[in-house]
Amino acid sequence: MADIYLISDYGKLYKFNRVFHFLYPDGTVSKFFPHNTERIFIIGNIEITPEALKLLMYHKIEVVFLHKNGLFNGKLVFDDSKNVLLRKKQYDKLNNQEFVLQWCKNIIKGKILNQLVFAHRIKRKHKNVLQLQQNTDTLKQIAEKLDQATNINELRGYEGAASRTYFSSLRYGIIPHWAEFKGRSMNPPKDNVNAVLSFTYTLLNHLIESYILAQGMDTYVGYLHTVEYGRKSLIFDLMEEFRSPLCDTLTVALFNLGIVNPLDFQQIDFSSNNDEYPLEPIDEQEDTISTRKGVLLSKDGLKKVIEKFEEKLEETYYYVPLQKQLSYRKIIARQVEHCRRVINDEEKQYRPFEVK
Hints:
The protein is α/β, with parallel strands linked by helices. Helices cover 46% and strands 17% of the residues.
């Protein structure tokens, strides 16, 4: 089953002989079969004919609509989960302080340890940079302090300190002189590296969401990211362990291998009256920047990042719980299944995926 990405300003999705056809503005047509399609991502102004919509509904193919700046517009989903007892357990655990504290410790520790692995890789290539050694030492020290934390606010403080330290190392890993990265920024991204980071995080977000829904859980009920109106907290909880090994490493490779170039980015003025590029809140625990100018991927840049993101998902890694090689895509699915078993009291603690 494949994810299909349709990127166009004025394309048209239609049905012919029970097969999806996509007509690009230049007249070219691509085809894909419903039974091989798991979900469709639509980026840009694309028309869906009534017959194509019926075919989507018949095969229950999830459709995600993203704005050109990577923000979520909406989606077509089918069949809400019938597992009300599982969701009740999910809600009940919000009041279990012991469970929530241990969940947060495990999630944050997994995230920091994965950051530490990548920071070590960067340090080995820049042995003369003292700051990189200091950063890896700091990340290790923070990870060791987590078990002694007594409340969630303390844990979030450690997480924030680790992220600042980690991103100060990440910039040393990017080789091209034209690649800009002065620290994590979003809403909008201030530079080209952040543009790629934010977009890969968006792709990861929607992939994890689909697996959560398939397991019958509520995406809005998480434990590390606070429960707030409109925030899909569980998605952000389960993203943390994959940000560094999947998205961050991919971002650095895209620049260092010359896959993206300066022409794949565009500077945008996000003024209050710019309807083409609206800004909306993003549910990450990062500061929203005050400037109204930002950098986004161009249409060609989006295509390159999507192609390499899909390839990255098919890379294999040794998955300790099953003691065998699995693709990143299957590892993510397995981790969401593990989450469901923990919430359903089939397993005691959530154990995040860790790279070595």
